[in-house]
Structures are given as C-alpha cells and as structure tokens.
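ok, trying the design again with the full structure, not the truncated one.
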C-alpha cells in the first residue's frame, strides 16, 4: 500500500504540473473549466494523497478528479494548443529534418 500511495501522489503531482504549464486561453478554447479550477482541484488531490492513506475516502475522490483531468481535459488542451508529440511520430517521415525532408545533399 505504501508504493500505491506514492504512485497516486506522483500521478496527481504530474497532473497538477501539467495543468500549471497549460495556457489559460486553451481551457476556454477547449470548453473546459478554468485553469484556476483545475489547479485547485488537482492541488487538493495531491495534498490529500500526501496527508492521507489510500484507504480513506478523500484520496479516492482525488484520484477520480486526476483521472478526469488526464483522460478528458489534457487531450482536449493538447488538441486546441497544437501540442503533442510530432517527433518521431506525426506528419513527417523519418527522414524529415527541422526545415523539411533531408535529401542527402
């Protein structure tokens, strides 16, 4: 249970940091709650996971809020802001460089 508690804490901290680095206007463009709302909810989830054990009721609610952010809000924010991995996956081929295709010349 100790390792599960640490994993949940790290998961909620990752979601908190991810929500902190996203732009405020991306939340509005994705038609999600505000950035401040998600920072408060995910900050509370991380604090509850830090101070309480996994078998209490509040960490489960924090876990649900974190999962909602990761599964629903984060992909919408990435789509709106144009984020996401472009390298090596994405639109280009494996021979594309930063300025276009590499022709070997």
């Amino acid at each position: 249970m100790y390792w599960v508690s640490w994993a949940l804490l790290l998961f909620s901290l990752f979601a908190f940091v991810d929500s902190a680095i996203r732009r405020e206007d991306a939340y509005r463009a994705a038609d999600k709650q505000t950035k401040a709302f998600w920072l408060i909810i995910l900050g509370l989830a991380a604090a509850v996971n830090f101070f309480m054990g996994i078998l209490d009721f509040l960490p489960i609610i924090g876990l649900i809020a974190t999962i909602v952010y990761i599964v629903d809000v984060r992909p919408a924010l990435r789509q709106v802001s144009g984020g996401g991995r472009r390298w090596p996956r994405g639109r280009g081929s494996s021979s594309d460089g930063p300025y276009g295709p590499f022709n070997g010349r």
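Keeping the full-length input from now on. The helical segments are 2-21, 24-29, 35-51, 57-81.
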